[in-house]
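To whoever is covering the structure queue this week,

Two jobs came back overnight. Logging them here so there's a record in the thread.

Job A:
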Amino acid sequence: MNKTELLKQIVGRLENDYKMLLMAAKSSHAAATHEDNIPDSKYETLALEASYIAQGQANRAQEIKMARQAYRTLSLQAFNPETPIRLTALVLLEDEAGKQRWVFLGPSAGGMKLMFEETEVMVITPDSPLGEQLIGLKADDAFELVSAAHSKEYEIIQVY
């Protein structure tokens, strides 16, 4: 897999998400400050609710802006079977049932899923439970991911 193209796709997705959230925040701000939404009584809270929404969207847009910058300046590392997993690793995992999944270890935007080269890739961060488990492991290593609900065993098939 071409990690350079994957990185471009991640940055593009973050740029689109940022633009969308900025537009949504501006729309919510306009609703919060529109003259028709000025409350006539203490029970009319539409403007207040819209301002909370606008602030939340602006905060999320700022997070995405910071993530976008982190990915724009990210230096991709090359991995071989003997290289320990760290930031920028693209990892193929296989669970005990034989189901495979690709994960990309990035600095932020954990949970983002992308279709890349006809395969779903999930971005994870080193702070996530899966990211914490992967750091320092190598191809062919196995590990168990334990949560409150269940545990699952994985084998690292490939690392790019």
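Job B:
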Amino acid sequence: MAFAGKKFLQLITTLLLVSVMTFLAFQVIPGDPARLIAGINASDAQVEALRSRMGLDRPPAERFGRWMYGLVTGNPGDSLRYNRPIVDMIAERLPVTLALAGVGLLFTLALGFLLGLVSARWRGTAGDRIIQGFCQINLAVPPFFMGILLILLFSLVLQWVDVRGYRDYREGFFPFLSSLMVPGLALGLPRSAMVAGFLRSSLVSQTGLDYVRTAKSKGASDARVLYRHMFVNALVPVLSTLGIVAAELLGGSLIVEQVFGLPGLGSLLILAIGARDFPLIQTMVVYIAAVVVLVNLAIDLLYRAADPRIRL
């Protein structure tokens, strides 16, 4: 419990710092935010009305307190551009982003574990070198460019799927999930190379340990020792990288959404930036940071469960 309590305290501290920095960042933007949003053709009365609506006529400490209270209570205000509650707009698009990141994580783990195990099993062979070369290429390709390559492959060359055929999650779970397969693959391929590299290194480092030699001396085959004994122990250091991978998947999903035309948080953030909807942008930054921090907390707790030797 002490471990979980310390991690939760770190979560709260991180979110508070992110909120403070986000608020301050929008306070130092050159010019009058109300004038920037209203446009150069707006009258002084319209600008003053917008300043009052945004709360810019109040002291900074009061504005920050009101904003933080809205974030905590789930009522951060209305969008200036769309005149709708911000929390409703985020709730509509959050399932798309989380589902895309989840599909990307599944591809990351499945391909990463497979490539890492096979590469360690074939260590020093031509197959091992081919896999490592494939992983290096994947690491060098950003997710958005990987998405463009997969569109060319699956849609234009092979003509297997219509990668722009997005199905809303309200139409059914499986049609919605199937429309995220190719974007999820574009998101997961680069990160799977990272997982494969860590897993291979962890497996290779355990090759000469006592428990491995003991298992082999009892007649266990190399494959059985690798899959039944070494793999479980090798997962512990790999889990420490999943927090970074999950954060990169969530951040990458915001970009991949633009490539495949998905109505997630990424497209909403781009629209908000284009419309200079500062309240919506501020809230989205903090909520996205909250999701990343929560995922990292879950990974830390999983890491602690996998290796009970970890203490405060």
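Note for Job B: The domain at 95-263 is CATH 1.10.3720.10 (MetI-like fold).

Please reply-all if you pick these up so we don't duplicate work.
Q.
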